[in-house]
C-alpha cells in the first residue's frame, strides 16, 4: 500500500512539474511578445531581455531536471520562472506605456514648435513685404525721369 502512495505522489509531482513547465513555456513566449511590443513602442528593453533570458535559463534547467526524473526540482525551477515572469510582463507593459506617452509628448512638442515657426514666418514675411513695398515706392518716387533721346534739349 505504501508503494502505491509513493507512486501516486510521484505521478502527482510529475504532473505538477509538467503543468508548471508548460505554463512557464507559454508565458515566456507571451513575455517575449510583450517585450517586443515595448521595444517597438520605443522603450529600452535591455534590462527586460536580460531578465527574460534568466527566465529561459530557469525553464531550460526545469526541462533538464524533468527529463532526468527529478520532478520536484523541475517544479521548483518552473515556479521560479513563473514568478519572475509576472514582474517581467508588468515591467514590459509599463515600459511600453511610458514609451507611447513619451512619443505622444514629442509629437505634441514638435507640433507646437512647427506652429510657432509657421506663425513667425508668416508675420516676418508680411513685415518684410510691407518694408519692401514702402522702400520700393519711396525709391521709385525719388527717381527723376530721364529725358528721351528724341526730345529736344
Description:
The structure is a single chain. This protein is mainly alpha-helical. It has a domain at 13-103. The protein contains three helices and no strands. The longest helix is centred in the C-terminal third of the chain and has 72 residues, at 71-142.
Task: Give a quick account of the main beta sheet: strands, pairing sense, barrel closure.
Answer: none
Q: How confident is the prediction overall: mean pLDDT? A: 86
Mass-distribution shape: rod-shaped
Structural class: mainly alpha
The number of helical runs is 3
Gap between N and C termini: 142 Å
Poorly predicted runs: 1-6
Helix content: over 70%
Provide the β-strand percentage band. under 5%
Radius of gyration (Å): 37 Å
How would you classify the quaternary structure?
single chain
How many strand elements? 0
TL;DR of this structure?
The protein has three helices and no strands. The chain is an all-alpha fold.
Keywords, please?
153 residues; 3 helices; mainly alpha
Task: Give the topology, please.
Elements lengths: L1 H39 L5 H22 L3 H72 L11
Amino acid at each position: 500500500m505504501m508503494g502505491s502512495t509513493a507512486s501516486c505522489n510521484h505521478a502527482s509531482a510529475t504532473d505538477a512539474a509538467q503543468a508548471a513547465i508548460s505554463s512557464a513555456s507559454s508565458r515566456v513566449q507571451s513575455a517575449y511578445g510583450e517585450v517586443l511590443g515595448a521595444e517597438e513602442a520605443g522603450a529600452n528593453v535591455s534590462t527586460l531581455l536580460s531578465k527574460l533570458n534568466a527566465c529561459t535559463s530557469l525553464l531550460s534547467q526545469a526541462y533538464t531536471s524533468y527529463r532526468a526524473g527529478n520532478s520536484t526540482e523541475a517544479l521548483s525551477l518552473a515556479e521560479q520562472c513563473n514568478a519572475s515572469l509576472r514582474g517581467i510582463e508588468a515591467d514590459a507593459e509599463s515600459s511600453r506605456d511610458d514609451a507611447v506617452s513619451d512619443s505622444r509628448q514629442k509629437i505634441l512638442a514638435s507640433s507646437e514648435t512647427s506652429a510657432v515657426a509657421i506663425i513667425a514666418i508668416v508675420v516676418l514675411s508680411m513685415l518684410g513685404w510691407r518694408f519692401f513695398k514702402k522702400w520700393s515706392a519711396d525709391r521709385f518716387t525719388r527717381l527723376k525721369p530721364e529725358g528721351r533721346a528724341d526730345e529736344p534739349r
